[in-house]
Design a protein that fits this description.
Blueprint (H helix, E strand, L loop, with lengths): L9 H4 L17 H12 L3 H9 L4 H10 L10 H10 L6 H9 L9 H14 L5 H17 L4 H11 L26
Helix pairs in contact: 3-5, 4-6
Length: 189
């Protein structure tokens, strides 16, 4: 079971300036606050969730900020932190925010079939704690993975049987028709 991480809040408080509800996105927060959130978004999201837990008034701004980011580090998001962020931000789920958050999750296209099986077992075991969007996303990714692979029919059936144990409770539409849907340039809206 994943433990709640604790960080020293004092390290973050010096960067958190006042926010405003007036103006465009970048006018609502100070540059140092925007920089802090960019650094936290570039990480595994654990510290970001910690900060938002103590300063929930920044949640909407973080979701907007996440939408406009165009440069991510190579560090994948922690699946539990990403899930917590989705739960914390349910009122602000613009498609671009959700797509960019999902882009930060561990990629499966280079996984071996045994790693896919392990991932499914993990998702099944933790599906009650993971946000439905994440479960739905990975289930769709695994189905696409199977279609693109050259696997024996029996191997596919075994994976498909395991996928049935994932209960998707999300109607989130991952498809998009906006101009940046297929581009990896999330700041274009």
């Amino acid at each position: 079971m994943e433990e709640e991480e604790e960080f020293d809040l004092k390290h973050f408080e010096t960067f958190l300036g006042e926010s405003s509800s007036e103006g465009g996105h970048w006018d609502k927060i100070k540059k140092r606050t925007a920089t802090l959130f960019q650094v936290l978004i570039d990480g595994d999201l654990k510290e970001l969730v910690f900060v938002l837990k103590h300063y929930p008034q920044y949640t909407e701004l973080v979701c907007e900020h996440f939408r406009y980011l165009y440069n991510y580090s190579e560090q994948s998001a922690d699946i539990f932190a990403a899930s917590k962020l989705l739960y914390m931000s349910e009122a602000y789920h613009q498609k671009q925010f959700v797509r960019n958050l999902l882009r930060k999750l561990e990629k499966i296209e280079t996984h071996e079939l045994s790693q896919i099986k392990t991932l499914i077992l993990f998702l099944v075991e933790h599906q009650e704690r993971l946000h439905p969007i994440i479960i739905s996303y990975y289930k769709a990714e695994i189905v696409a993975y199977l279609k693109c692979g050259n696997y024996h029919l029996l191997q596919q059936k075994i994976i498909e049987k395991e996928l049935l144990k994932l209960h998707v409770k999300s109607d989130f539409d991952f498809g998009a028709k906006d101009r940046d849907a297929t581009l990896d340039i999330p700041y274009m809206v």
